[in-house]
Write a structure and sequence with these properties.
Distance between the termini: 39 Å
CATH superfamily: Alpha/Beta hydrolase fold, catalytic domain
Shape: globular
Order of helices and strands: EEEEHEHEHEHHHEHEHHE
Radius of gyration: 17 Å
Largest sheet: 8 strands, mixed
Strand order of the largest sheet: 3-5-4-6-7-8-9-10
Number of domains: 1
């Protein structure tokens, strides 16, 4: 159990590597946790390219607190990054999926100075904008999050949602966070994603381009949303991209196929 700066206990696991050059911090999507098979599959593939720390964001799985759906979760990711550093890894890259993909963008931008600082970020299937209701599934998600009855339904799925709302009217959204990055960013999105259409990854990528950092956009043909949809070739490609971008020796994996920008 890790502790965030605001005192929330965060469940995390470490899959070690004998090579301490690189660790990946894996951050699940909404209603996820690191014990799920789809998350463990990501962990196992990335472990071919470095050590892996996977965590449950607040309000999810075995972690404490309640999810704020993108606001305070930056502290959860920062706790995972700090732990990776304490374990002796020289470089740390965050890899987030869906909500986790939004959170790692915000963490990389907002925690750039301090123990939560990362060396690279990979955002997969992430929303670029808050309050997005342009798809049927996202209208349902908003209903679940915003209504007391919906939050009870989510609690049955081991996801505890805060009913207090955000501290600010609107925390820095992911695409704006991307425009403040100082580290390389890879944006990965499937063109069959039924949560967030392609305007989202393109807005995030454009934000990173405006920041002047190294950034790539992979639009993957026929692929859906988040962890469960990602084939092994894409996961391996993510690991290879991070190592290559950080100037580390390749240890396996091939670049993912897809539209590159």
């Amino acid at each position: 159990m890790l502790a965030t700066v605001d005192g929330v206990p965060i469940s995390a696991v470490h899959r070690p590597s004998t090579d301490r050059a690189l660790a990946f911090v894996v951050v699940h999507g909404f209603t996820g946790n690191w014990r799920q098979e789809r998350v463990q599959r990501i962990v196992a593939r990335l472990a071919r390219c470095g050590g892996v720390v996977a965590l449950d964001m607040r309000g999810h799985g075995a972690s404490g607190g309640a999810t704020t759906v993108g606001d305070m979760e930056v502290h959860d990711v920062a706790a995972g990054v700090r732990w990776a550093r304490e374990l002796g890894y020289e470089r740390v890259a965050t890899v987030g999926f869906s909500l986790g993909g939004a959170v790692i963008l915000r963490e990389a931008a907002l925690m750039a100075d301090g123990p939560g600082e990362v060396d690279a970020a990979v955002s997969v299937s992430a929303p670029a904008f808050w309050y997005y209701r342009g798809t049927r599934i996202m209208r349902l998600v908003h209903h679940l999050v915003e209504s007391p009855a919906g939050r009870l339904v989510l609690r049955a799925r081991r996801t505890r949602v805060s009913g207090a709302g955000w501290r600010e009217v609107q925390p820095v959204p992911p695409h704006e966070a991307a425009s403040s990055l100082r580290v390389p960013l890879l944006v990965v999105h499937g063109d069959a994603d039924h949560y967030f259409p392609l305007e989202h990854p393109r807005a995030i990528h454009a934000g990173a381009q405006s920041a002047g950092v190294v950034t790539d956009l992979w639009i993957e043909s026929g692929i859906g949303h988040a962890e469960a949809a990602m084939p092994e070739r894409v996961i391996d490609g993510i690991g290879a991209w991070v190592r290559q971008t950080l100037g580390l020796t390749a240890v396996g994996g091939v670049p993912a196929e897809g539209e590159r920008s």
